[in-house]
Amino acid sequence: MRSRTEMGIRLNVDGREPNGTVSQDEYESVRDELIDALQSLRTPTGGPCFEQVLPREAVFDGPYVKDAPDIVIVPSSFEQYLSASLRGDWFAEPSEPWEHKRDGIIMAAGPGIDTETDVAGHIFDVAPTILASFGLEVDREMDGDPLPIVSPTGRRRYPSFEPGQTVATDDQAVEQRLADLGYLE
């Protein structure tokens, strides 16, 4: 586990990890066995530890799937999580109980915001909503849709990012904007 906030487990695969021990031939069976074990794991009160334990390809797609954890875990009610370090009891109070909850808060104000509309959605909808609020189209490959508080702007394909590309900016305007936001003094 690289990080508990990644909400997944990455197997130590030979040829992929520096000191890999799980052979390519064993990968599927080891992953399946671990998925089964995690799905059957129960809390001290008898409830399931995880709502979902899934292979990464059941959750992610696209060219970067190989970078995702091999197994994705969704804690039950976000009350449990795996720890990347061994310490003490198997079950303990979470050190950061405020993290990773199902429900969040979104606030929007200004011209073009429909204050009478329900904003129920998904975190994936935040970026498309921000783009639409600026009148920008959402990329066809982007997950999520603008929340109904803004007028949809449609979708288009943006050019792929090429590493090493630079974009000219007005450095003074950027610095002034960051100062206005309180990031620079």
Describe the structure.
17% of the residues lie in helices and 9% in strands. With 185 residues, it is α+β, with helices and mostly antiparallel strands. Among the domains are: 75 residues, no CATH class; 54 residues, no CATH class. Strands 1-3-2 form a 3-stranded antiparallel sheet, with helices on one face. Strands 4-5 form a two-stranded parallel sheet. The longest helix is centred in the N-terminal third of the chain and has 14 residues. The model has no long low-confidence stretch (mean pLDDT 84).
Name the descriptors:
185 residues; alpha+beta; 3-stranded antiparallel β-sheet; two-stranded parallel sheet; 17% helix; 9% strand; extended
Strand and helix map with partners:
Blueprint: E1 8-9, H1 27-40, E2 50-55, E3 71-75, H2 126-133, E4 138-139, E5 155-156, H3 171-180
Parallel strand pairs: 4-5
Antiparallel strand pairs: 1-3, 2-3
Shape assignment: extended
Distance, first to last CA: 39 Å
How much strand content do the residues show?
Answer: 5-15%
Average pLDDT works out at: 84
SSE succession? EHEEHEEH
Query: Mind describing the biggest β-sheet?
Result: 3 strands, antiparallel
What's the count of strands? Answer: 5
Structural class: alpha+beta
Count of alpha and pi helical runs: 3
Helix content range of the residues, please?
A: 10-25%
Strand order of the largest sheet: 1-3-2
Radius of gyration: 21 Å
Detail the poorly predicted runs: none
Brief account:
With 185 residues, this protein is an alpha+beta fold. The chain is built from three helices and five strands, in the order βαββαββα. It is extended and about 50 Å long.
